[in-house]
Design brief:
The chain is α/β, with parallel strands linked by helices and about 280 residues long. It contains ten helices and nine strands. It is globular and about 50 Å long.
Length: about 280
């Protein structure tokens, strides 16, 4: 079993606010803080001082979003895993991705599961939809894959296709924590993840008001560095090359970031969810 994630425990875990400050200087962060002060009442219970817990993206989304009967767009849907969650939750779901080949797989999987989902090829920064089309728009682990100079435009496009009162849900991995440290030599996305955070903090410029921000963790475990390395090698030539050239350094990082849980080496992976609402 590799890269397993624990998603069924809701017990609070250590508070990492001091180690993971969400600070950002400048007017955009100031605007974000002013908007957060106006948080809608129904979201305050979820805020809980940004208390950190073990959860999953679908659990958090299920708590924050009203989906039944609503039109929902998953931008950068990839293989459609989160899009299928939207559909199973009763949404009229649409998945959008720039890659036509991955959309074929997504369509086939949804059909096999008996789900009625629309699949559309397109780009986040130029959405092929009319204004005010959707009640919910989602970036699920996808905003940081948008070209850096197009992230703000992607947020603006999401706002454009949202109906007034509609929700924008952005889930992004945080470039901190044990899992990030263990993998940063092969997947250091610190720069683009921080740019994605900045784009979210600038969302008020596009008619979006922050509702709440939630941080959660998923638990990843491996039996050994060798199991971890074998899994990474299956994920592409770039990772195989890094392992070949810097394997010893990666082993040191991996072992330094790990903690023991039984016979497994465990790593917390940290995620941030921002919920915004169109004015």
């Amino acid at each position: 079993m590799s890269g397993s994630a624990r998603s069924n425990s809701f017990a609070p875990v250590r508070d990492i606010r001091l180690r993971l400050p969400l600070s950002h200087c400048g007017t955009r962060r100031d605007a974000w803080d002013r908007g957060a002060a106006l948080m809608v009442p129904e979201a305050r219970a979820m805020e809980l001082e940004r208390q950190v817990r073990y959860a999953s993206n679908t659990v958090v989304a299920g708590e924050l979003l009203h989906l039944a009967g609503r039109a929902a767009l998953d931008i950068g849907c990839g293989d459609g895993k989160f899009t299928r969650f939207l559909a199973r939750s009763g949404a009229r779901a649409t998945g959008l991705d720039v890659n036509p080949y991955v959309l074929v797989r997504a369509r086939d999987t949804a059909r096999d599961e008996g789900l009625d989902i629309a699949w559309v090829e397109g780009r986040a920064e130029d959405l092929p939809f009319a204004d005010d089309r959707f009640n919910v728009v989602v970036f699920s682990n996808s905003l940081h894959h948008v070209a850096p100079n197009e992230m703000a435009r992607a947020i603006a496009e999401a706002a454009r296709v949202l109906r007034p009162g509609g929700d924008l849900y952005v889930m992004e991995p945080v470039a901190e924590g044990p899992y990030f440290e263990a993998t940063r030599l092969i997947n250091d996305e610190r720069a683009v993840r921080n740019l994605a955070r900045d784009a979210v903090h600038g969302a008020s410029e596009h008619g979006l008001t922050p509702v709440t921000e939630v941080t959660f963790m998923a638990l990843r475990t491996w039996s050994s560095f060798e199991e971890f390395a074998a899994e990474q090698e299956e994920r592409g030539e770039k990772r195989r090359q890094v392992l070949a050239e810097r394997g010893n350094e990666m082993r040191t990082l991996f072992q330094g970031a790990a903690r023991r849980e039984g016979d497994r080496l465990a790593f917390d992976q940290i995620f941030r969810v921002n919920l915004l609402r169109r004015r």
